[in-house]
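Residues and backbone
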Amino acid sequence: MKPNKSIIAVLLAVYIAVPLAFGSDSYLMSMVVAAMVIGGIALSWALLGNLGGMISFGHAAFFGVGAYTSAILSMKLGVPVFVAILLGGVGAIVAALAMLPVLRLRGPYFALAILAYAHIFRILATEWNSVTGGSGGLSNIPPLPTLFGYDFSSKTGSYLVILTIVLLCAAVYQYIRRSHYGLALRAMHESEDATRVVGVNSTLLKGLMLLVSAFMCGVVGAFNAHYINFLEPDYAFSGLWVTIPIVAAIFGGYRTISGPIIGAVVVYLIDQLIFKSIIPSGHQLVLGVLLVMMIVFSPDGLLSLVRKLMRRNHVAT
């Protein structure tokens, strides 16, 4: 019962306490929403890296394709926004299907191949003027709708939407990790050749993790397009959608489910609210220093460090 009570307490805190505490401050809520967007990307990246055993430098491809898919469907075909957001995830899956041939690559070769795909999709978005608007992008993207009298395009409404998306992604991650697929994937990390001997199709499992990770990232990208109401290739496929989520995932602990989300909130808010005010130019260098320190002193991330400190305090008392 204790874990259930803990989960309920956390859900009440993030769904009720955060809007009550910060809902009146539009700037701070916009920062929290942006942190949750990064947390969603970090979670999808961590799923691929932790369960799939593949390090990706190209999640900007899924983010951008998901954003453009949702924006185009809602603007030009009149698809309802929430439906379009889900279809944005499907669009990211289609993009991931094009990447399946690189699954046979390992290590840095796979990471660089995925990065190349991200550049390809950015070029396509730039050149396909009739659909994507080219380098000028798309403006006046339909905002999040008003349902049952509640405006989800408000800062608090947007926060509730992206929070729900991230928590659902975390639930899917947890389900996969506890399933027999998760067991097979963890066994692959120890010895992929040995798992193949007992009949595990490692390439198929890696492909499935790539598709799930792409869907998660695509849905987050789709949400972001309707949140900011504007989209252009250099923004949608920016390398920042790779670097900051990776920093957040590693900082929080990418081998856990909550680590990438907590890492994103901590890293982004500290960077924007503290470091940026102290060092307006080059403030992200401080994040690099923090990341190096975390890797040196607690390779498993912030959550592991907190648990160790709590155990020490418990022993000391």
